[in-house]
Each structure stands twice: as structure tokens, then as C-alpha cells.
Give the backbone structure.
Amino acid sequence: MPSKSEQGVQSEALPPDWQGSLLEMIRGAAPLNGALFAGSETLSGEEQVGVYAQQFRLRIRPALHQDAPGLAALVGPEIEPLFEQYLADCPPRSWSLDHLADRLEAWLAQRGAPLAHQEMARLDHAVQEIFFAAEPVPLDPAALGGMPDLVTSPAVQLLTLQQSVHHFRAQALGGQAADPLIQGPFHVIVYRKGRRVRHLEVEPACFALLEHIELGLEQAVGRVLAEGLCTETELGERIADWFKLFAQRGLVQTKS
Amino acid sequence: MLGVGVGFRVPHYSLVVETHPEMDWFEVISENFMGDGGSPASFLKRLAGHYTVVPHGVSANLGGEEDPEHTRRLLRLVDQLNPPWVSDHLCWTRAGGVASHDLLPLPYVPKIIEHVANRIDALQQKLGRPFAVENLSSYATFKASVMPEAEFLQRIADRADCAILLDLNNVFVSACNHGFEPADYLAQLPLERVVQVHLAGHSITPTHRLDTHDGPVCDEVWGLYEAFIGMRGPVSTLIEWDEHIPSFDRLAAEAKAARDRLHAL
């Protein structure tokens, strides 16, 4: 049997931004409206759109929990309305569900959320980014003789935290009762070793040395001393240990 | 013809790359392996070292605008895997910068045929290999549509000169939801363009069927598969199981059930 198109039946005009309007309904930013849809024997046009809206909620909410597990643990039951509002204000923009929480820290800051919430969102995001970051290139011992230019590895992020959210996250996600948050600052290196993302709290001078490593060793050391983070003597005693740590954990690589 | 494969899913990553169970081939969700590195990349490298791996996307947004970053990363993945074809869905997934994270249906109108065919044509040229477009499970029908879904798919495939990934579970789910005959759907398709079949389970609600990939292939879809391979001959087949994922042995048994049907031809 010839189809309607072959019979010359014209299509009902589609509104210019039919996709944008439909997506607003699906993500709950606009009321459901079935005007575009024919419906079926069992579902009205509005209910047909509702199926997609329900699927959106079922897919996105658990994914956001996966992207920000530390924040969910820290906030507790109130996380559900918080996530709902976040998704309403910051709809998904990436094709990857792994980027749902990309704007969470900024959004929390904008609404004046507690600093610990903002820092936990930053830590969750760092872990997420490092999980998918490019492979670090191990240092070549032979090249170290000439003291090559070093950079931090792609699977490393340096976070200065004012609250002990890193301890809280590790305990809560490890199934332990989390200690109350304490005031910092804490200098935390988030990095990937093998397939696992880990974090490491280090002393400020070590953190600053890694932070400035791209400037070259001489300048990086100069910055550490200029910032008064340790004395020359202390630096001399500790710097070998710090470089050993950087190499063992894959925190630095040769600048390409 | 690749034989019968299964989707490569997280609960089976370690088992598969460490023990190399018997399986004809694997399909991966492209977007899950488009990051720069880390655990997924490491598993994929080991998988591809032992099996044929075909990337199957969910976010090419063929019914909307291209995301150049998505395409760039897809091309990088394809360079790595060198698959016989690449696939994604006949749908749209984003608009106005917002991602739906769902496969949304299109109105079956000539204007959309032209748009989708142009997108596929451009992508296929960049890929340098066949692109297979997959039919959806859908839960809504546009008043604007002027042709049946099978004709829409056929006309796009002809216009773009691309391959078809025929999801028989989706045909069945959509047939139940929209009241058409699956056999009529198959009769409308250019069978020679079908390079791959998807088989999966689905859920039944009081008002509609949902493509949930959360269980075994149902009897009706097995029947449709037998009818299809009777018409088309052997075709690469893939079992999808994405929710309530069973043991690999159970999944492999589902693949064997498909393989037995292929060999019975």
C-alpha cells in the first residue's frame, strides 16, 4: 500500500524549535504538552512525552549520584532536592554522563552553599576527571641525569581544601562512619595510579613544589622559599624524598 | 559476517580481558571509551588486542546538529579499533546545547530524511568505512509524520548509501507501542543494507513496552530473528543486556541461542 507521502499527503507543520521545546518538557523545565503527538490506544500524546520525561529522570539522577558521591554522602537525604534544583538550573550539556557534575561547584558557590559542600564537589569533580585522564608517561631514569623539564601528569589535580572533605569522602565511600569535618587548610594531590584514583595529603612546601614544577626546578624551589613554606635547610633535607614521591606515584612526567 | 557477539559491559571487563572467553566479537558503547585514558581505555586496549570490537554510539545526534568534539573523539576511537563498520541511532539527542541522554524519535518527514542522510553521508566520509544506522524503540508518534518508520529508515539508508543496524527488539517494541506488524516493517527494508542485528530483552508496562535491555530475548523477538535471517541469510548479530546484567556465562548462553539459529539456516 502506498504510504501517505506517496499519496501526496502534506505533513503537519512542525514548530520551528520543536526539539528545544520537547527537551524542556522532557527535563521537567516546561509542563508536558502532547500537541505534537498522535497518542496511541493506551497513551495520550501528553503521556507519550511523559514516558521520555520519566526515562530522563531515571537515567540522570543515578548518574549524578555516581558523578558526585562525596557530596551525596556529605549532604545526606537533602541531596535529592539539591540535585533536582541543580539539574533544573544546569541541564546536561555533554554527550557523556560523566560530565553531569561539571558545574556543581560553581552552582553551589553561586547559591552560597557551605564551603565544605563546594570543596566536596570540587574533589568529586577532580576524581571524575582523573579517572578518564590521559595515561601518565612514567619518568625515564636515564633522562633524569640531565634534569629534564617536568610537568604534572595529566591524571593529577592539586586541591587546597579548607575542610577535611577528602577524609570524609574516603571514609563515607569506604563504608565507614565519617569523622566530623575539621578546618584546614589541607594540601591534597588527587591522582591515578593504575586504574584507581587516590588522594594524598602533603605538606605545603611539597605541594607548592609540585604546583610550580613546570617553571623548572630552580624557579620552583625559589617560589617555595619565597612563599616561606620551608627553610633552605629543610628543603635540602626533604627535596629528594619529595621527588621520590612524585616519581613513585606518577605525579610528574617529562615535558613533551 | 562476524558471527554472534555481546556488548562489553563493566561487570565483565576484568573477566573478559583476563580469561578471553569464547565470543565471536564485542560491541562497545562508543561514548564510554571516548575519554583520554584511564580504566576504560586500558580495558578497551586489552579487549581489542584479542577480539573484533565494533563501536556503537548513542550520541551522534543524527537528527540534530553535529558536535565536532564528539566526532573528533569518535574518529580517534575508530582509528584505534579499525572496526568493519560504526553505528549509531536514527534519532536526536540534543538541542539548544542541552543533552537528552536518551534516543528521541524523529517525525517521519522528507525534510528530516534529507537532514539525517546528509549527516550520515558526512560522517561516513570522515570515518572512511560503512556507517550503520539503527532503528529505535519509540514511545511517541508525531502527528507530522507522513510515512511509516520502515519507509523513513529505508529512504535515509538509500539516500545516504549507508548500512542498517536492525534492532529486532526495537522493531517489536515499536510495533506493540504503535500498532504495526513487524513483518510489514521487515518487508519494507532494503535487506542487503543490513550488516548487523541487535537482539535484547524489554519490559512490559500496563500501557506500553520499554526497551530496557534488562532480560533475555523474548520468544516473539526470537521468532522475528528466525524470520529475518530466513529472508536475509546470516548476519552479524549482537546480544544487548544493559540492566540487571547477568553472569558472562548466562550472556554467552544467550549468544549461543542466536548462533544456533544462524547455524540452523
Remarks:
- Chain B touches chain A through 49 residues (CB under 8 Å).
